[in-house]
Design goal:
The protein is about 35% helix and about 25% strand. It contains 4 helices and 5 strands. The protein has helices at about 10-25, 35-40, 85-100, 115-120, and strands spanning about 1-5, 45-50, 55-65, 70-75, 105. It has a 5-stranded mixed β-sheet, sandwiched between helices. The longest helix is centred in the C-terminal third of the chain and has 16 residues, at about 85-100. The radius of gyration is 14 Å and the shape is globular. The termini are far apart.
């Protein structure tokens, strides 16, 4: 089961934050605090959470700029990988992009072949000629 969250309670945030830590997508330098996540939700973002009973086993954080839907922190608990959870999360994210009429965009590390394969299966292609850059100290 996948839930869409447009606001996060502290306990839900803690569950997904733990999942982000377990899967390596969470990083304090990224500014993944509850306040930051909540602010993105107040501006049209969505958090998708996949559950097995009461356990959070997968997540995707969706934001947008009114043109593109950005898929962040797509993560599936290691014990639940290869069970279709990532596929279900991606289907839900693509559905939301379709509902909004936005292109979908994401970043994936080149050393993550499983995620690269999943995203390619959904029609995502590398943006050749682009370099991902960030300035974290604003």
């Amino acid at each position: 089961m996948i839930n869409r969250y447009y606001q996060l309670a502290q306990n839900v945030y803690e569950q997904i934050s733990d999942l982000w830590t377990i899967t390596g997508v969470g990083n304090p330098a990224r500014g993944d605090s509850l306040d930051v996540v909540q602010r993105t939700l107040e501006h049209g973002g969505v958090i998708l959470v996949a559950y097995a009973e009461d356990l959070s086993i997968g997540t995707a954080w969706l934001t947008h700029d009114f043109r593109r839907l950005y898929i962040h922190h797509m993560a599936v608990h290691p014990l639940w990988q290869n069970h279709g959870i990532g596929k279900s999360l991606m289907q839900e994210a693509i559905q939301i992009a379709h509902e909004l009429g936005f292109q979908a965009k994401l970043e994936v590390h080149q050393d993550n072949p499983a995620a690269n394969k999943l995203y390619a299966n959904f029609g995502f292609e590398p943006l050749t000629g682009y370099t991902a850059m960030i300035k974290r100290d604003v």
